[in-house]
Structures are given as structure tokens and as C-alpha cells.
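Protein in question quoted for reference:
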Amino acid sequence: MNGKLSGKVAIVTGGSRGIGRGICKELALAGARVALNYTSNEAEALKAAAEIEAFGGEVRIYQTDVAIKAQVDEMVANVRTDFGAIDVLVNNAGICPFLDFFDITEEAWNRTIQVNLSGMFFTSQAVGLHMRSQGGGSIINISTVTAARGGYKQVHYAASKGGVNSLTSSMSNALRKYGIRVNAILCGGVPTDINVEQMAELKAIQSQSPAASRDPFELRDHGTPEDLGKAVVYLAADDSIWVTGALMAVDGGALVR
């Protein structure tokens, strides 16, 4: 544990699996006390918490659907009571039901927007009130390069994350006078349990193209949850004190290919 965030309290939404789990781990390794939010899979949340506790980190788990404002408000109030402060918010919770354009139902569209965009706003607003009273804090939104260039079977997801990028810029403008910094990480390809089949399908399609030859100087194909976690630690710490409103790509160069 490096102590860069020693004494800080961080909420991570969607922290039980995949990228969120890696973010929780890296925050705890940096000394933060972690409030790990999950939607429904308590078993995975407990496993993630146990991993953090195994190296001496402090963590508590909170079940909340971020798309429901009343649940978000209750969670944030409980975290404040349990930990005494909230210094960092990582808005990571998100869904991506992979669907062809004409197969995106009204229900799938609405749920994707509610979780990925509305949930991020609800959580930021609730946490922002506490950060304002404390004199500042750091909000970090997990977005994606897909918002800028589209993605395979991800029209609804990309649209929601485009909204996240706009929300990040707008919130940084609105909250800077309270000492609250707001930034977003544009995530590249990171294999997790929710996208491994879709990534394999896309790779098979790309392999049929003559243009699919690999650049010998290219970075590794995919990132890891810990790659994202390390970037979150930077944006949470005072190292980034002059950084707000940034859309920081952590993507192995995906945006410039």
C-alpha cells in the first residue's frame, strides 16, 4: 500500500466485478477506504471485499441500483455515516446489453440510459452535496472510447457514454467553485465477464479482413481493470489537483488508430 490516498474515502459504483473491482483494489492499495457499491450479486461483492481485506485494506459493501435516486440517496447517506466523509466518487456502474441496431428495444434503450447516464447524475448530485460541505473532492466518471467512434452492437451504450462525456464537462464547470474536480476516463478494450463473448466475436470478424494485420510496434491488445484503477488513483490524488473537465483516454492508443 503506497499511502497516496491515505485517509481518503472513496465510493465506487459497480465495484464488485470487472473494471470496478480493479478500481477498488487500486484505490485500497493507495490507502483509500473503499465503499463498494453493487447492484445484486452479493457473492461477488463479498469476494471483492475479501481481496481488499487480504492485503489490509478497509472496505464496506452497499447494495444499490444507481438508476433509482431514492436508493442512491440512502447509500450516500449511509457511507457518510459509516466513514465520516466522502472524498472520491468513481462512477463506474454501467451496462451494455450487446444488440444489433434493429434489436434494441425500448426497454433496453431506457435501462441503458437510466443506469449509465441518469445513475451517474444521481450519484454525483448526492455525493456532490457532501463534497461541497467538506470543501472539495474528486469525481471520476468511467466512460469509453466507443462514445467517440462507435462500437460493435453498442449504439445505445455509445449514446449513453456520449452523454457521460458531456455530463463530465458540464459538472466540472458547475462544481469547480466548490473545489470539486470532475474528470472522465475513456476506457479502451478491457475484457470482463460481461463482454468477453462479444470481444471474441468481433475479433473473429476482424480476422477475416486483409487490413487486420498487426502493427509490430503496437501495445498489448487489451487493457486490464488495474490499468483503469491506476488512472483513477491519479485523478483522485492531489497529483491531479489542476486537472478538471478532462476526458482522459486510457485505451492503448485506440482513439488514434
Summary: The longest helix spans residues 106-134. Confidence is low (pLDDT under 50) at residues 212-220.
